[in-house]
Model the fold of this input.
Amino acid sequence: MDAKGRYVLVAPCRDEAQYMRRTLDSIAAQSVPPALFVVVDDGSTDATPQILEEYSKRMPYLRVVRRADRGGRSVGPGVIEAFYAGLDTVNLDEFEFVCKIDLDLELPPRYFEILIARMNAEPRLGTFSGKPYNELPDGSRKAEVCGDEMSVGMTKFYRTTCFREIGGFVRQVMWDGIDCHCCRMLGWIAESSDQEDLRFIHLRPMGSSQKGIWTGRVRWGYGQYFMGTMPAYIVASAVFRVTHYPVLYGSAGMLWGYFSSAAKRLPRYGSAEFRRFLNDYQRDCLRYGKAEATRRANVRQEKVWKERHPS
Done:
């Protein structure tokens, strides 16, 4: 089967009845629909299974994978385990693109059409996404904070070749940062765009936790430690965010998560080469700003990509 232009969506979910109809409707309305849409019901206890059964009757490309209830929502490793439970049912040779997507989004109708066109125009673009916005009570929208140098975790659209080269997703917190840095290390470009036609609604605001904001910030700090972030960079990140909501409290949680993990000597991401690349990139971010550091990394690593992908 010719994989050209074909994409597969894999959506891990649990108890998404509140949001998922808007996601499913927006996928059904895409100008370029998926060739396959795998939803992994990770032991839902609400109306999620019934809603999926309803939509499977009108979306011929929808496949539902059901997992046993493991007792509650799980972020980080749990989400990626559920993602792979779906991906393991897919033959990636049949698809040019693969996307991990959440079921708490509302996508614009040309979302995937534009992603594919952009990636076709830039062969080094390995992962790409739009930008998430939150709906406010007055009907307006507010952008979530996310850098241009990352594809966002709730809709990770990948060139299948790139996804395989980086080894897929790490089954740990900060999986959605490690993947983009791995892309850059191998000479791929990772980015997101605030183009109006790529702005999507994130129905469940990010940056907290089902157990509270403190838990979410501590988890983020631990994730930075696990990834290999150097101390100077985590301190600079916390200072930069000190006036962001929740003021002081959020930054304190980030620092506690990082330095308490360091004090315990918890395991870190296994690749020393990756951590060296990451720290060099972070030093450039502190010197030149993130946009210039990313540009420099992309220029520097282009030769790595060309060696792996001779024309």
